[in-house]
Amino acid sequence: xxxxxxxxxxxxxxxxxxxxxxxxxxxxxxxxxxxxxxxxxxxxxxxxxxxxxxxxxxxxxxxxxxxxxxxxxxxxxxxxxxxxxxxxxxxxxxxxxxxxxxxxxx
Amino acid sequence: xxxxxxxxxxxxxxxxxxxxxxxxxxxxxxxxxxxxxxxxxxxxxxxxxxxxxxxxxxxxxxxxxxxxxxxxxxxxxxxxxxxxxxxxxxxxxxxxxxxxxxxxxxxxxxxxxxxxxxxxxxxxxxxxxxxxxxxxxxxxxxxxxxxxxxxxxxxxxxxxxxxxxxxxxxxxxxxxxxxxxxxxxxxxxxxxxxxxxxxxxxxxxxxxxxxxxxxxxxxxxxxxxxxxxxxxxxxxxxxxxxxxxxxxxxxxxxxxxxxxxxxxxxxxxxxxxxxxxxxxxxxxxxxxxxxxxxxxxxxxxxxxxxxxxxxxxxxxxxxxxxxxxxxxxxxxxxxxxxxxxxxxxxxxxxxxxxxxxxxxxxxxxxxxxxxxxxxxxxxxxxxxxxxxxxxxxxxxxxxxxxxxxxxxxxxxxxxxxxxxxxxxxxxxxxxxxxxxxxxxxxxxxxxxxxxxxxxxxxxxxxxxxxxxxxxxxxxxxxxxxxxxxxxxxxxxxxxxxxxxxxxxxxxxxxxxxxxxxxxxxxxxxxxxxxxxxxxxxxxxxxxxxxxxxxxx
Lengths: 106, 552
Ligand code: SF4
Description:
The complex is a heterodimer of chains A (106) and B (552).
Chain A (H helix, E strand, L loop, with lengths): L7 E7 L5 E4 L5 E2 L12 H15 L3 E12 L2 E4 L2 H8 L6 H11 L1
Antiparallel strand pairs in A: 1-2, 1-4, 2-3, 4-5
Chain B lengths: L5 H23 L4 H9 L3 E3 L4 E5 L5 E2 L1 H14 L3 E4 L5 E3 L7 H9 L17 E2 L14 H11 L14 E4 L13 E7 L5 E7 L11 E8 L3 H15 L10 H8 L1 H15 L8 H10 L13 H9 L1 H10 E3 L5 E6 L10 E3 H14 L4 E3 L5 E7 L3 H10 L14 E2 L14 H10 L3 H7 L4 E4 L13 E8 L2 E8 L11 E2 L4 E2 H18 L7 H8 L2 H8 L3
Parallel strand pairs in B: 6-7, 7-8, 16-17, 17-18
Antiparallel strand pairs in B: 1-2, 2-5, 3-14, 4-5, 4-13, 8-9, 9-10, 11-12, 12-15, 14-15, 18-19, 19-20, 19-21
């Protein structure tokens, strides 16, 4: 049996505030990868790429690109570690959360 | 501290207005990202893994309480409540929104700060010994020269488009705390036998993909010739530095390929021509700048503080902290204090807005209103009376800033790595945290003694791993994080580049590997005073290799 092609997603940063976003349903941009739209390689992806580029040109997002996704238990997860960290934020706590954790430890 | 003159202030003000307009035009669509990118980078604005990142220049690492409070304010108002001090003595905010950055820059300008010279192929913010003007072993205060270099290099029209970025570091003590031999230009200020001030000039050092130790091309450059000589080096580099390949564009490659002698000859030829030009530093100008860096009025005190000695007897935590985190000052009865930003298990170099505010207050109360950022990602209070140490310690302790680990194995330098940086191959911070936890017990750290661990998340080496006694480099192997270990590096007056010990380790294995190395060191050192580095230099790789990989 041929392996199913890796599903894709399009990601970018919002222009105004820089946050990581994913292309969601109906041309929206969403902040959570779970809400992003899975895209099959071929016309579907090509169309989405063209749309994303137009959104870049329209100053909504910056430098969109395609990432590989693995669906685990029905939840989309970026394949590469870098993209997983990008989607979920730093893997370490920071700011007041870190201070609170360290305070508890000592 | 240096205070901006009218020119500085006006220039920075104009720059903020200009950038405000550029951001507005980007948001309104008048300019594209491609057009905007170089403009934002010139103001220290990067687009990183998660968001924009603003890198703020802290010239030669010197901060006033007013500036620290402003950084705290920005962290609170525009970011996520914290900032990250870097190995270049700068501060980075990881989450500012583009639309807010003009306001942030205006706030910064009000305290004489900006993000210029923190990006791009220009002469970057000049760094210096973090104990400058304070350390007992200092011969010349490097800060006036760092300031002169700042003024000369800021937007120097000829050097805005160098082949690659260019970093200058200055020290004025025998003990090199500014790592001058791994900079594009390193300056070591000293006196000759006649008592005149001059500089040993090192050129072509650097880390990154091709680490190299600088060549000394002048043993004693007279003070007045500082700028002309710098100009000549930069000219030679600007002319002959490679522009065809980004990885071969730093001056270290030029020096390496052309040879130090050839480069020295070219520099000297150009220098002979411009030596007596307008760049010659007038005596009065040096005096004028030096006056900004005069030693603060520290009241005369006894060399030893009875109050401190008594407190140390009853408080072992204070005793350990004083021993580890303070160094002798040139004025008797005083010390320079390192405030560790390396709590056990924390993120190296991070500080919250509350901590920055507190540091500002404490600098005011206990350190003649001065603080410094060290390239080791700590904060320094340069002028503290020994009498005040018990109180200062108590204040720091309340805010988790009293870790007694300066120079020890948990005082780890770490770049942001894959948790923040879009160029990274692997994470650095979690590795630093796990090592810190593994070795965090105070007795264990003290038993191990001086040991510098430095971690970079990719070959760009922002974490200075090449000059770590133990260096850790994150790489990617088959999609997984993998860590290469180097031993024997050092960034001081006896600079050496660490050597790769063998095959790398997975994220799970790497902390055990470090422990194996450290345990081996404890076993083979001749006596407790023999540091890890000295032991490694005496014995070489073999015992460590064997401990890590067996005989195979
Ligand atoms: S060393 Fe690499 S991963 Fe670390 S901050 Fe520099 S560029 Fe980023």
